[in-house]
Amino acid sequence: MFITLEGIEGAGKSTQLPRLCCWLEGLGLSVLVSREPGGSPLGCQLRPLLLDARNRDLTPESELFLYMADRAQHVRRVIMPALAAGKVVLCDRFADSTVAYQGFGRGVDLEQLAAMNQLAQAGLSPDLTLLFDLEPEVGLARARARNAHTGLGEAEGRFEALELDFHRRVRQGYLELARRQAWRYRIVDAAREPDAVFEQARAFIAAALAG
Ligand code: TYD
User: Fold this and answer.
1) Which of 66, 151, 159, 208 has the smallest C-beta neighbourhood within 10 Å, fewest atoms?
2) Which long-range contacts (CB under 8 A, 24 or more apart) does 96-99 make?
3) Residue 206: phi, psi to the nearest 5?
4) Chain centroid to CA 197: how far?
5) Which DSSP string do the residues of 87-116 spell out, in sequence order?
6) Are residues 3 and 126 in contact, defined by beta-carbon separation less than 8 angstroms?
7) What is the per-residue pLDDT across 121-177, written as a single tens digit (0 to 9) for each?
8) Which bin fits 187, alpha (ψ -120 to 50), beta or left (φ > 0)?
9) Overall pTM > 0.90
């Protein structure tokens, strides 16, 4: 089973990922936790280019191609082999991030983007996508506090630095995707306390495993 976690900055995906992994392993499942960008050795080299707040001159098109390179490598070298080995793959962001951020956020043509994603994904689509949804004001405040705390504000804060309207468009993009592909989407109320968020995410995954 291929499960992706999506949402705006500060939605709490990265906090929940290890907990969800522990719970799944406790059920006796073999789990691979990964993320985009940066889920493969090549991706680890691309990630700093994509997230560095000092990279202000990156055009939306260059940004898009870098995310696609990251995904094409990640799908073929990491995700597909893990699924073939019978693992559950839990991935922090995947193709829907490109639709939400580069499509709805930056305004790249959605049809062109879908064709590129198709090539990068090699026919692979998530079985379940958890959308961690919350107000962008709340998410951004959380993400900025985290960056200040870890000292990663400059190195990883390129998107956090964008204006609120950008993040509102990204959120609307996700909600639109969730409407269009309701069969694989489940919306988690990410504004709640971490334990409540975990319970809701866990219940959605448990239902998908049972189905
Ligand atoms: P990350 O630090 O992983 O963000 P978060 O902790 O919020 O998940 O950084 C990933 C950033 O890259 C995030 O701001 C969203 C952006 N992104 C895109 O714009 N397009 C994409 O296709 C992907 C995978 C990520």
Assistant:
1) 151
2) 96/4, 96/6, 96/129, 96/174, 96/177, 97/6, 97/36, 97/67, 98/64, 98/67, 98/68, 98/71, 99/173, 99/177
3) -60, -45
4) 16
5) -EEEEES-HHHHIIIIIIIT---HHHHHHH
6) yes
7) 999 999 999 999 999 999 999 988 888 888 776 777 788 888 899 999 999 999 999
8) beta
9) yes
Q: CA distances (Å), 77 to each of 71, 72, 73, 180, in order?
A: 10, 8, 6, 29
Name residue, tokens 């597909």: 80
Both tokens of 200, joined, read 């809701």
> What residues are paired with 4 via a beta bridge?
91, 129
CA of 98, closest atom in ligand 1: 22
- Tell me if 47 CB under 6 Å of ligand 1: no
User: What's the one-letter identity of residue 210?
Assistant: A
Counting atoms of ligand 1 from 1, which one is nearest the CA of 70?
Answer: 24
Helices (H), the chain: 13-26, 41-51, 60-74, 80-84, 95-98, 110-121, 136-150, 153-156, 164-180, 194-210
Question: In one letter, which amino acid is 48?
Answer: P
Are the C-beta atoms of 24 and 209 separated by less than 8 Å?
no
- The token pair at 127 is 């079985």
